[in-house]
Amino acid sequence: MALVSISGELDMYVEQGLRDALAAGARLDSGTVVVDLSGVSFMDSTVCGILVAEAKKHRRKGADLVLVSNNRSARVLEVAGIDRVIRVYPTLHAAFQEVLGGVVT
Fold first, then answer.
1. Which residue range forms the structural domain that includes residue 33?
2. N or C of the chain: less Cβ packing under 10 Å?
3. What is the 3-state secondary structure (H, E, C) of 8-64?
4. 2-10, strands of its sheet edge to edge
5. pLDDT tens figures, 57-70
6. Number of domains in the chain
7. pTM above 0.70, yes or no
């Protein structure tokens, strides 16, 4: 499992940095990349598209991408329907527990 933590405002101006961070997590070949969006204060449609594309890319490789969001970004993910395409957890603990099969205490 790899963890990518992202914070701040996510829009088209940080697109390349976001793609680079997600690619770095994927290069670890860990099977699952957990993207922590808990520190995100704003997220636009560009970022939503990147997350969906990355999740699809992971699935084609037999891997998984999951999101953690417990703030405003959770509402954006819900409105955009991303929570129906990518698993979204309210906390890192919940994500780790699911990904690691209940090993986290």
1. 2-99
2. C
3. EEECHHHHHHHHHHHHHHHHCCCCEEEEEEEEEEEECHHHHHHHHHHHHHHHHCCCE
4. 2-10, 32-43, 64-68, 88-89
5. 999 988 899 999 98
6. 1
7. yes
